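Input/output pair, single chain:
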Amino acid sequence: MGYPVPLSEYARLKVVERLRVEEAEVDQDIERLVALAAQVAGLPIGLLSIMHADEQQFIVNHGLPELSGTPREHAFCSYPIGEGRTLHVPDAHDDARFAQNPLVVGAPHLRSYVGVPLEVEEGIHAGTLCLLGHEAHDVDTVTLDRIITIGTAITRLLCSQRDRRELDEAHAKLDFERRVVERASRTCGLTGLLNMTAFREEGTNIIDDRQESMQLALVDIDEFRTINERFGAFIGDEFLAALSESIHSLGARNCTAGRVGDDKFALLLRTVDSTAEEIIERLRAKFYESTRPLGLIEMGRLSVGLAGSENGAPSWRTLLSNAEVALHAAKSLGRDRTVRHDEAIDRVYNIKAFQSAFTEAILKGEIVPYFQPIIGLETRRIEGLEVLVRWHQDDGQVRPPAQFYKAFSDRLLAPLLTRRIADAVCDILPEWRRLGLNPGKICLNATAEDVAHPDQLMDIMHELAAAGLSPSDLTIEVTETIVMDDPEGGMRRTLQSLRDKGVRVALDDFGTGFGSLTHLSSWPVDILKIDRQFVRRLPRSEKDRHIVRSLVDLAGRLGLETVAEGIETDWQRDFVTETGCDYGQGFFYSPAVSAEEIKDLLLRERAHGRHTG
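Output:
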């Protein structure tokens, strides 16, 4: 038996699929309206039919309990759906389309019918309000209009039910993604321990709340950089995992642990001196046992700096600073040892000597800018340069930032460092302009001290503008810590004032700190930079792939651009491109290089039309 099929049948079936209405889920108001329609029509049977590809399903059934649906070829409702208009059949025996229908000549012996198509989208009918009787029955025009009105009300309720469900599902999906990213923002994905800023938050709370003896141990893997460079990041990760597993295996009570740097871990112990040292030696023995199978017996030892807080003093900041000094002493004294902070250690290994040497290096011009390209993932072109810093020493050595990281947090050195780098960039830009080179956006890293003193950043913006770089081509990069550690809001006001002048703000290393997602929408930022630790593990970690997708999706929902840091392979590039990430940065394209080398790179790109990555 043939029946009419709408021209838009494929689209109609997609609409039906979206409805996903099961009998148990139908709104009671819809059931009451179906019963009312049958009463208005004077017919004993009222059905709400949803038409699938090969059958119709009765999601509301008044008066026909023996049937839950019929094949589509037997369905009276195929006609109002196929033709897109209400169908009234006073007597099926007199209608050639239905006279031999199995539902007419056999049980349930149907004879009269009214079918109102439900237009859930323009021109798309998902089902019908279906009224039936066992005897011939005519319905006048006024009654038919009332039934059509009821059908329209049912359609609206069905659509409303669908929209509410889809909205609930969207909220649930977004909430799940928020919880995934929130969890990732407080923990290290590789080790499962607290990350640096979360550990600092926990440590501050513990110190403030307790008046008992506390011991802070900073544990550093010796020669970790050499391990990574000589044997690869995979072996480096094995050492990190071994140390985190060793920490977990201690089972030490009253211990809070975190990963607070690339190869640095921290343990806050609520215990006395001797017990803390016993725990550290157990950790050292367990770690060496775990890493022995890697075959690098002479590498990956542990240096530990230990500092105590007796009877509730000193503060968390002082405790952390003392542990840092003790760790520096442990490394300076030959590594593979534990050093406890005391006055003698502090006199020898404090920051004063470093401040003097670094200030001299700035004055001598040894602190120079390096540049790393930021690549448009769709255009494959250099869209900007991140300005980094290197220390060119008299002996020819080039020291990376990891070897003078203290300068970035020093209230005296940090502003001098930023000013020196900005001045150097101002000297370089005119030559690039003379050569017709366009470096795109210039991204400067700002320290907490810089943001706390807005006059310097404003001066730098004006000086760069005088050198040919408009504020709209300047990006200031800050870390999550700078934005979060701002109880009075002064730093945020500084960043917002820069944005008001056209400068863009990037949030660096997003996902590694404790930047709560509940605050992200209010932060004065335009760009999220996804930390390299997530990108590095993409090929072997489904969890990190999910996190990166969620970060990119979240940024897009908030109107922010994204930069994936640490891209080292074409697989990583292709993956982050597929997520919709805007820009990429990493050794796959280029390491950070000198001004002369980046000039050559810009010249080559201009000649070839795109970056080779």
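The chain has three domains: 9-168, 196-350, 414-593. The longest strand covers residues 382-392.
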